[in-house]
């Protein structure tokens, strides 16, 4: 009897201990509250599309099917029983007594909390442009919609309609800082301008680590100066020297490019110590001199465009980019004293080839139809060197063009454009 009583007492003591444990837990239990974020485990995904979750409450939570439709399709399809998710308590007890929660709002709430944290840091984040209005640019960051006021956008070398088009192109990625968070008004404001320094340094370092000399990449023209064009390659600017814009003479980059234009460029050189990137456009264009002897001959009649007028004549570019000199003595009947009253830049002229020297990249033209072509002897007019070999490029040690701080120069270009 003693043995049986002892066992019964042990069971009763265990039951009392379990009861006390449950009673203590009930005092510690905090019921779900509206607006609260809780970690939950998916228990069931029913045929209606609703999801049942366990969030440590006295009853399971229900995620309505319409809430799941707000999720990214890939994430929605990958949800499965046993997954851990964060949920937002929409209604602790609806009219049917159910606990209604939201996965989509749970994820958004996490993003709001992260935005508030970023507000007090110098961290730069990436946002994707989704549109624009008169006040600025609409963007998406994670699962939240945000806004960049026009005064906080950067316009390196971009003005007017080109600025509007370039900065607000949909799907463009911008580096920004969080400057205002007001969840109650669903107001999330970013600044590209405040993130400029950190973003540029990060992007340029990343770009220089990925680029190789000889690469062909796409970029946006952001600045035009008399010495060349600045091209943004995705957060960092490179320079196309004016001599690398085309095979023919280019007096100013605006003659062949426009701000905001997307172009392909060839990477000439990289200086990782000074963060300078030299680019070329003409290296991606056919060299008109490579087969000039097969397409042209002395005495051939051609048509060209005046690219520059100088005291001793005019430079003429054929349509394929081959450029040469129409000397003053070969203009009209040969008696002109100066060329400026006879031709101007942009004029189309009918000419004959008077001299062709592809090996020296030289071609001479004449308009004196009734005279013999000049000989190649000592009395022949000496043609100047091809425009590209006359150009004086600053060198970086390997003969390729370089430039002073691209970003600063590009900003100056914006003011002067």
UniProtKB/TrEMBL annotation:
Gene3D superfamilies: Nucleic acid-binding proteins. GO terms for biological process: translation. One of its GO terms (cellular component) is cytoplasm. SMART domains: S1. CDD domains: S1_RPS1_repeat_ec3 (cd05688). Residues 373-417 are annotated as: Disordered. InterPro entries: NA-bd_OB-fold, Ribos_protein_bS1-like, Ribosomal_protein_S1-like, S1_domain. One of its GO terms (molecular function) is mRNA binding. Transmembrane segments: none annotated. Keywords: Ribonucleoprotein, Ribosomal protein. It comes from Candidatus Thermofonsia Clade 1 bacterium. Belongs to the bacterial ribosomal protein bS1 family. Coiled coil: none annotated. Residues 35-104, 122-193, 214-282, 299-368 form the S1 motif domain. This is 30S ribosomal protein S1.
């Amino acid at each position: 009897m003693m043995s049986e009583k002892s066992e019964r007492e042990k069971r009763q003591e265990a039951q009392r201990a379990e009861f006390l444990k449950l009673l203590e837990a009930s005092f510690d239990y905090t019921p779900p509250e509206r607006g609260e974020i809780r970690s939950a485990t998916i228990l069931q995904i029913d045929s209606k599309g609703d999801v049942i979750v366990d969030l440590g409450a006295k009853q399971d939570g229900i995620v309505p099917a319409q809430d799941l439709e707000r999720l990214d399709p890939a994430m929605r399809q990958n949800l499965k029983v046993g997954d851990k998710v964060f949920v937002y308590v929409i209604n602790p007890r609806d009219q049917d007594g159910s606990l209604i929660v939201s996965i989509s709002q749970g994820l958004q709430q996490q993003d709001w909390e992260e935005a508030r944290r970023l507000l007090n840091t110098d961290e730069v984040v990436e946002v994707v442009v989704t549109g624009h209005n008169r006040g600025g640019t609409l963007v998406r960051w994670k699962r939240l919609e945000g806004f960049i006021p026009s005064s906080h956008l950067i316009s390196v070398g971009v003005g007017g309609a080109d600025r509007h088009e370039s900065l607000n192109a949909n799907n463009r990625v911008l580096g920004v800082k969080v400057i205002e968070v007001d969840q109650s008004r669903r107001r999330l404001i970013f600044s590209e301008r405040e993130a400029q320094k950190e973003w540029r340094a990060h992007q340029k370092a990343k770009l220089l680590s990925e680029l190789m000399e000889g690469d062909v990449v796409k970029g946006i023209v952001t600045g035009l100066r008399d010495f060349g064009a600045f091209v943004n390659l995705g957060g960092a600017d490179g320079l196309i020297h004016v001599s690398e814009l085309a095979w023919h003479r280019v007096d100013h980059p605006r003659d062949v490019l426009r701000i905001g234009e997307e172009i392909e460029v060839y990477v000439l050189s990289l200086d990782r110590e000074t963060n300078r990137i030299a680019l070329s456009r003409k290296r991606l264009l056919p060299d008109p001199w490579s087969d000039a002897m097969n397409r042209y001959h002395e005495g051939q009649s051609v048509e060209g465009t005046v690219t520059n007028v100088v005291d001793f004549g005019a430079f003429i570019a054929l349509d394929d980019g081959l450029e040469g000199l129409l000397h003053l003595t070969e203009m009209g009947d040969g008696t002109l004293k100066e060329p400026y009253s006879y031709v101007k830049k942009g004029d189309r002229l009918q000419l004959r080839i008077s001299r062709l020297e592809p090996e020296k990249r030289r071609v001479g033209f004449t308009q004196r139809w009734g005279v013999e072509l000049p000989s190649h002897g000592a009395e022949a007019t000496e043609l100047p060197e091809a425009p590209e070999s006359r150009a004086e490029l600053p060198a970086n040690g390997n003969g390729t063009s370089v430039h002073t701080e691209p970003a600063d120069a590009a900003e100056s270009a914006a003011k002067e454009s």
